[in-house]
Amino acid sequence: MTSIKIKAKSNAFSAERREGHSTRKATRRQSFFQFMQDEIKRLEALDRIRTSETYAATFRSICSFRSGKDFTWDEINEEEAIRYESYLKRNGKSMNTVSFYMRIFRAVYNRAVEKGLTLQHYPFKHVYTGVGKTRKRAVPLSVIKQLKQLELPLNSSLDFARDMFLFSFYTRGMSFIDMAYLKKKDLKDGFLIYRRRKTGQQLCIRWEKCMQDIIEKYPLAETGFLLPIITRQGGERRQYINAMHLVNRKLKEMPLSSPHVSQLSMYVARHSWASIALRQHIPLSVISESMGHESESTTRIYLASLDNSVIDQANACILKKL
Fold it and tell me: What does the alpha-carbon distance between residue 37 and residue 177 come to, in Å, rounded to a whole number?
């Protein structure tokens, strides 16, 4: 009886080993293209839509570079990475765009290393993965004052665009996607509490009268969102994207007596708050957070030691100057 039990146990163990070996072989056979497509789907499932879109854009670029021919894992080496960098430059990509694609390519490769699909050979050590300086995006406080004081037709698309720009500025440079998904329940006890969709980090902003003035102009949508960006059920992301395009287009049509009008966009609202905040001696770590810099893990370490009331006081100081 005992020998039968041992034999059965041994057979079960052998089957388990065969199954595990088979799974590892199947995983190891997975190509780079397949793996990257799986990563894109994984990001979508985690509701990291924007990130999945950037991965998809990189995937299309790599497919074009390879003329649709998949990589073997051994082909992802220093020489191939340099060839891809040269391909991007030949096609007129800026160095920041080159770095953008390379960093995503590297991230996918590193994840494949973690999964055991390939060994780490550091193929990206001789290509550009830095971030260079971009043109100045901020506008002076005087331009924001002019924008605020403009006489615009009530409930017009220009009026809506101005409100969205100012709301972002009032809320320490909140990104448009975070504004789009704000809900009434996020506003409680005089504070707006929300999580950044990009990082999951929770932010708390003291609610000011200028913010309330904008909210009161618009009836609460059936969707329960605080701002009239997503106004109906279904197709939420498409509504957000369409609204962002509309706002950015209308901001450039503002009747301002300033050469800066041509550069107005929602992103400029974020940069402008940061630039003005710097002059108000707000810690650089806080400015980095509002700008959404790449080194957000470092930013969070710095922010962890700061009292949120200090940030709110500084924000109130900026708003009083308008």
Answer: 25
Contacts 24+ apart (CB under 8 A), 118-124: 118/73, 118/74, 118/76, 121/76, 121/77, 121/78, 122/78, 123/76, 123/77, 123/78, 123/80, 123/81, 124/81
Would you identify the CATH topology of the domain 141-320? Answer: hpI Integrase; Chain A (1.10.443)
Alpha carbon distance 145, 276 (integer Å): 13
| Of the candidates 263, 285, 258, 261, the residue with the CA atom closest to the CA atom of residue 274 | 285
Cα-only R_g, the chain:
25
Quote the CA–CA distance of 42 and 52 in Å, as a whole number.
8
Map residue 133 onto helix, strand or coil: coil
313: which 2 tokens? 């006081």
At residue 253, the 3 state secondary structure works out as coil
Mean pLDDT calculated for residue range 53-70: 95
Mean pLDDT of 206-218: 95
- Residue whose C-alpha is closest to residue 255's, from 164, 170, 175, 143: 143
3-state SS class at 93: coil
Which pair of structure tokens corresponds to residue 255? 């009747």
> Apex CA 316: angle with CA 274 and CA 147, to 5°?
65
pLDDT digits (tens, 9 = 90+) for 179-189: 999 999 999 99
Segment 238-244 shows an average pLDDT of 94
Strand (E) or helix (H) holding 315: helix 308-320
In which element (H, E) is residue 194 found?
strand 191-195
Q: What is the 8-class DSSP label of residue 85?
A: H
Would you say 151 and 214 are in contact if contact means Cβ atoms under 8 Å apart? Answer: no
Q: Parallel, antiparallel, or unpaired: how do β-strands 187-188 and 202-206 relate?
A: unpaired
